[in-house]
Give the backbone structure.
Amino acid sequence: MATFLDVTGLQYFSSVFVFIFVWLVVYAILLWTKVLGENKFVHVLIGLLLAVFVLISPIATNIVADIAPFIAVVLLFIVLISVASTMLGANIDSFPALKGIFLVFIIIIIVIAAGVKIREQLNVPSEAQKDLSRTVNLIFHPTFLGTVLIFAIAVFAIALLASRG
């Protein structure tokens, strides 16, 4: 029986969602950082090419499908910080260190997810799989995550204090 909450049919569209997600995220990051200048056509074209390349590779499509929620949370934090800074009378451009910090978070998420997914794709012996589970348990242990959060707060504080000088 089909219900409103039955979304299992959306799994067939996951590659389309991944394509659109990669295209928009790459375009937004290039537009936000202005690494390649002000030309929006170049940003759209590079986003489109990267989305096509991700769509061609099934491993990359699986990696993006797995990390999309985490990237969405980081992008949500960017929007919230932008809104909060605008409400307090500042502009997000007055904190140039934030761009680098968020890009580092995104790169860390991508590297960890890619490593886990590629390791799952390989046929490794059971002893190495136990090691992977220990590594994942270490990374997602509350004590380790708390330490990472404290270090992130310290990095934000140092970056914001250094940018005012």
Q: What stands out?
A: Helices lie at 14-33, 40-56, 58-87, 96-121, 126-139, 142-164. The chain is about 80% helix and 0% strand. The two ends are 63 Å apart (CA to CA).
